[in-house]
Write a structure and sequence with these properties.
With 238 residues, this protein is of the alpha/beta class. The chain has a single domain, classed as Aldolase class I (TIM Barrel), CATH 3.20.20. It is built from eleven helices and eight strands. β3, α4 and β4 form a beta-alpha-beta unit. Bound molecules: cytidine-5'-monophosphate (C5P). Cytidine-5'-monophosphate binds next to β8. Cytidine-5'-monophosphate (C5P) binds next to β8.
């Protein structure tokens, strides 16, 4: 690990979603943030447009990066993709649990066991999946039982945690100890704009419900001062 990264390494629970269409916009926002006070999430749009270079730039600046590419493919392909992501120096990455235990186990083995290996997180059911879509693709049972089952499968396959809504965190935390990371989007500070998120929770309530990390986009990125918005959220967590 580079010395600079070691100095900046943050223990923040806040992951700012860099939902931007190009590297310039993402880097401009990152410039306003402190790597000691938050982590950053890079998703499919930014990665597809700007590639690994943006990830590497932000890693060099000291940010912990959650590479949110939700891999889902045959075990060999996912394992190789995870290995490539680990080589970029990311802090966290994710795969779809619907790929099954063989895929998840292969992914977990691919990132090794070094102390500074990335965390490997599973996506259970996307929160955009409603009952109609669930039925349409032939899944059986209820959505919440399926989320619990997939999270248990992720745990058994050696994954470090799951992405889930903060509403699901209480149930999941009852079944998993604190080493199992619950990464929760759909977070809205008190009095902030809900936007297209429906089932939101405040940062403090999400942490109380068992969330390990909070994924927060627009309440920070669209704020007049992203750092002030971040500071207000930190204060609400104290
Ligand atoms: O701006 P906002 O706080 O709504 O951003 C939330 C981030 O979390 C976005 O990057 C979104 O894609 C992501 N996300 C989500 N719901 C999920 C999974 C990921 O909102 N179930």
């Amino acid at each position: 690990m580079f010395l600079m990264e070691a100095i900046f390494m943050s223990d923040s629970k806040i992951i700012v979603a860099l939902d931007y269409p190009n590297a310039d916009a993402a880097l401009a926002l990152a410039k306003q943030l402190d790597p000691a006070r938050c982590k950053l999430k890079i998703g499919k749009e930014l990665f597809t447009r700007s590639g690994p270079a943006t990830v590497e730039t932000l890693v060099k600046q000291g940010f912990d990066i959650f590479l949110d590419l939700k891999y889902h493919d045959i075990p060999n392909t996912v394992a190789k993709a995870c290995s490539a992501a680990a080589d970029l120096g990311v802090w966290m990455m994710n795969v779809h649990t619907l790929g099954g235990s063989a895929m998840m186990t292969a992914a977990r083995q691919a990132i090794g066991n070094n102390g500074d290996r990335p965390l490997l997180i599973g996506v259970t059911l996307l929160t955009s999946m409603d009952q109609t879509t669930f039925d349409e693709i032939g899944l059986q049972g209820s959505i919440s039982d399926t989320v619990l089952r997939l999270a248990a499968l992720a745990n058994k396959s050696g994954l470090d945690g799951v992405v889930c809504s903060a509403q699901e965190a209480t149930l999941l935390r009852a079944q998993h100890n604190d080493n199992f990371q619950l990464v929760t989007p759909g977070i809205r500070p008190e009095n902030s704009v809900q936007g297209d998120q429906h089932r939101t929770m405040t940062p403090a309530k999400a942490i109380a419900a068992g969330s390990s990390y909070l994924v927060i986009g627009r309440p920070i990125t669209a704020a007049e001062s992203p750092m002030a918005a971040l500071a207000a959220i930190e204060l609400s967590l104290n």
